UniProtKB/TrEMBL annotation:
<feature type="domain" description="SUF system FeS cluster assembly SufBD core">
    <location>
        <begin position="138"/>
        <end position="367"/>
    </location>
</feature>
<protein>
    <submittedName>
        <fullName>Fe-S cluster assembly protein SufD</fullName>
    </submittedName>
</protein>
<dbReference type="InterPro" id="IPR037284">
    <property type="entry name" value="SUF_FeS_clus_asmbl_SufBD_sf"/>
</dbReference>
<dbReference type="GO" id="GO:0016226">
    <property type="term" value="P:iron-sulfur cluster assembly"/>
</dbReference>
<dbReference type="Pfam" id="PF01458">
    <property type="entry name" value="SUFBD_core"/>
</dbReference>
<dbReference type="InterPro" id="IPR000825">
    <property type="entry name" value="SUF_FeS_clus_asmbl_SufBD_core"/>
</dbReference>
<feature type="region of interest" description="Disordered">
    <location>
        <begin position="1"/>
        <end position="22"/>
    </location>
</feature>
<dbReference type="InterPro" id="IPR055346">
    <property type="entry name" value="Fe-S_cluster_assembly_SufBD"/>
</dbReference>
């Protein structure tokens, strides 16, 4: 935690001693205690894009948490070599090493969980698949998962979200000194599901994380990754892909907090949207905050978001933010673009005898290919490519 962030307790009151919500990411408010946060009404900067009525009470204390979100862990080859799975209580000293909740839903999930799943990766284990199961139709639940590496480990993890119901969770990624963690998180929920997830990434000295977020399913999915560098030399590569159909709300809200020297980050998120007349608009939201604090000299960072609107009745919101407190950086930049099909690409393909519907599919495949090709597990990549094809078939794009 940096010196300009505030961690409050219930005794300090709402938003700490001052009682006023912070105005920007540089001074954002953090707390493990749900009661330290005001109930959001939807006008706050952190919530203004989120349809509050569809959160099933996860944000205001009315959720009953009458269900259970089972977490299943399996090594890719059926072996557990280099993989340790533990179920621990909330008093385990390792819990919280990834970061602190920054909104009321994440704090609610933190306050309500009874047991956490801790997965420790040592050496070079085979890819591990972790399935996060929803509590079931009409039910609500919380969950807590921590994935951690030992020093100099090299590991790959897939976290799959599946099932129905409403779920609030916190996922911690604690990447030890000199280690590399490749993680793919897929949101493949049923059509009724609501998932609000706080992701907390802590990078040790010379540690690397390559994290890819894939969102296809669910009624409302809001994922908030935060990267914290605990020592120099850390590297974070964050990639994302979302495909929203009519009525879906997919929100990606990330923060990369450069607080130590000689660290780097690279962010690339892409979304496609297709709506339908008479149905709530398809909606994607991408918020990309990158902070470079005064102590973070020689930082190198870039973030980019692209959105492809395939039909009418679709809305994409994109807000890249870059705050810099030092001039001693290696490089920094950000960009955002939202548009419909590239007419030049379509003309090029059609001029070579490719029918328009096939040409449009090829453009979308190419649009997402830059993200999907980064997934190292062939079977998973092929399954996700098939899911993109299935999404395109919904409206015959």
């Amino acid at each position: 935690m940096s010196s300009s962030e505030t961690v409050a307790t219930a005794a300090e009151g709402k938003y700490g001693q001052g009682g006023v919500p912070p105005s920007g990411a540089m001074e954002r408010f953090l707390s493990y205690d749900v009661e330290a946060f005001e109930v959001p009404g939807g006008r706050e900067e952190n919530w203004r894009f989120t349809p509050m009525k569809r959160l099933r009470g996860l944000h205001d204390g009315t959720a009953t948490f009458d269900g259970t979100a089972a977490i299943e862990v399996a090594a890719g080859d059926g072996s557990a070599d280099g993989v340790t799975v533990e179920t621990v209580g909330r008093d385990d000293a390792r819990i919280g090493k990834g970061g602190v909740p920054a909104d009321r839903v994440a704090a609610q999930a933190w306050s309500a969980f009874r047991e956490a799943t801790v997965v420790t990766l040592d050496g070079t284990p085979e890819p591990v698949t972790i399935t996060l199961n929803g509590p079931g139709t009409g039910a609500t639940a919380v969950a807590h998962l921590q994935i951690r590496t030992t020093p100099h480990a090299q590991a790959t993890v897939v976290v799959e979200g599946r099932g129905s119901g409403a779920l609030a969770d916190n996922i911690e990624f604690v990447v030890a000194d000199g280690s590399k963690l490749v993680v793919v998180v897929t949101e493949e929920w049923a059509d009724d599901a609501v998932h609000v997830s706080g992701q907390h990434i802590a990078l040790g000295r010379d540690a690397t994380i390559v994290a890819t977020s894939i969102a296809f399913g669910g009624d409302l999915v809001r994922v908030s990754p935060t990267v914290n560098y605990t020592a120099p030399g850390g590297s974070a590569e964050l990639f994302g892909l979302g495909f929203a159909d009519a009525g879906q709300h997919l929100e990606q809200r990330l923060l990369v907090d450069h607080s130590t020297p000689n660290c780097s980050s690279n962010v690339l998120y892409k979304n496609a949207l297709q709506g339908e007349e008479g149905v709530t608009d398809a909606h994607t939201v991408w918020i990309g905050d990158v902070l470079i604090r005064a102590a973070a000299e020689q930082t190198e960072t870039f973030e980019f978001n692209r959105n492809l609107v395939l039909t009418a009745h679709a809305r994409a919101d994109s807000v890249p933010n870059l705050e810099i407190e030092t001039g001693e950086i290696a490089g920094a930049g950000h960009a955002s673009a939202t548009g419909r099909f590239d007419d030049e690409q379509l003309f090029y393909l059609q001029s070579r005898g490719i029918p328009e519907d096939v040409a449009r599919r090829l453009v979308v495949r190419g649009f997402f290919g830059e993200i999907l090709n980064r997934i190292p597990i062939v079977e998973l990549r092929e399954r996700l490519e098939a899911a993109v094809e299935a999404e395109l078939a919904v409206t015959g794009v």
